[in-house]
Each structure stands twice: as C-alpha cells, then as structure tokens.
Amino acid sequence: MRSSHLVASLILLAPFLVFAEDPAPVVPPKEGKSEQVIIFNGTDLTGWVGHDKLWSVKDGIIIGKNTEPVPVSTYLLTERKYSDFRLTFETKLAQSEMHSGIAMWGRVAPEKGDKYTYAGHLVMFPSGYGFYDLYGRAMIHQNAAEAQKVGKQHDWNTVEILAQGNRIRFALNGVQISDWREPDPKRIQEAPIGLQLHSNKEPQEVQWKNLRLETFPKDDRLLTVKAADAK
Predict the structure, then answer these.
(1) What does DSSP assign to residue 174?
(2) What is the pLDDT of residues 7-34, one digit of tens each?
(3) Please, are residues 217 and 124 in contact by the beta-carbon 8 Å criterion?
(4) 151: which residues sit within 8 A by CB, 6+ positions away?
(5) DSSP 224
(6) What's this model's pTM, rounded to 2 decimal places?
(7) Can you give the residue ranges of every domain in the chain?
(8) How many whole angstroms separate alpha carbon 127 and alpha carbon 202?
(9) Domain 35-229 falls under CATH 3.20.20.70
(10) What confidence tens digit (pLDDT) does each residue in 38-55 have?
(11) Phi-psi bin for 70: left (phi > 0), alpha (psi -120 to 50), beta?
(12) Burial class for 47, CB neighbours closer than 10 Å (0-12, 13-18, 19+)
C-alpha cells in the first residue's frame, strides 16, 4: 500500500523534479606542436576565406560589415584547421546590437544556405553571451550574467579562448567567465576557426584586431587573467 502511494506521489511530482545530469568526461589536452601562429598579418586576409563583399582590412583591423540583409550567418574562416589552441584578440561591435562570436570544433556547412556558414561550437559576445551549438543543440552553456558585468557593448573588448581536450575556457576583459567541458567529445573536430557576422536584416559592423593564436598550449593558465582572479 505504501509503495503504491509513493509511486502515485512521484507521478504527481514528476513535472517539478530536477534530475542531475551526468558530469562531462575529462578529456585531456591533445598532443601536438606548440607554436605561435601568425593568424592575421595586419595587412590583408591572407590565410582566411570568406565573402569579399563582407570582410575587409583597414588600419590593422579586420572588419565584417553588411549593408544588405545577411540571410544566413556567415564567417571569415581560417584556411588552417585547429583543435587545441589559445586565441586572444580584441573585438568591437561597431554597429547594430546583434552578437558575434568565434566558431570552432565544427565544420563549414554550405548546405545550410551560405558558402561560409558553420556548424559547430560558437563562443558568443557581446550582445548575447554563452556557448552555442550551431545547427545542433542550440544553447549549451549560459554565462551572460557574469559576462555582462564586464563586457562593453560598443567598445573594444579583450577576449581569450583556451581550448584544450574537451574544455573551453573564456575570459573577457581580464575576467574568467567560463570553464566548461563538452559532454559529448565526439562533437569535437579539428576545424577552421571562424569570425561570425550574424544573420541580420539590419546594417551591422564587427571589428577585430591583435589576433594571436598558439597551438597546443602547454600552459593551462588564462594569460589575460590575473592569477588571483582565476577560478
């Protein structure tokens, strides 16, 4: 009798119960040559591919800009592929309120409607923050509450992304925002890194400068964050 009452109670409570998810596995950093890569030469887009009409360089700054609608989010993509890396840069949303981001660990997906669109992980900033699975699981990590405290909407932001194994760490303006692991390591691929110009019916402009990339970093610290502030 008691067990039947317990089952009935659980059925009534089911919509309100929250079950803990299994923790993500710990996948160690991959082995490879650690080197500094000149990802952007400061002059032109050598080493990158994207729509010529949307991407340009001026005064050492990569500019993604549209005046006509962008029906599908498009990316400026590195010709080289990466898995484990440290990427630091400065970025500014110069026009519009639409977020941008860094795409990684996925693939170019022209079947989605644009020659340079992307399916995979996206580290989002500045209007909307979080980690997103493009053409997959949608939002996979929330961090907006912390990021918005230190992010600048229409000024230069310093960003560091440290990707090692299945771990992504994200720092914004010297503050560690996220330390997250991909729960499904099969989704991680060696892939181009992409700068996002989001789908939008409005004119928009995103700027990037001082891009620096290190492959297979041996140091697992966030270098833009003071040791005392790292989590």
Answers:
(1) T
(2) 444 444 444 443 345 689 999 999 999 9
(3) no
(4) 125, 126, 129, 157, 172, 173
(5) T
(6) 0.89
(7) 35-229
(8) 15
(9) no
(10) 999 999 999 999 999 999
(11) beta
(12) middle
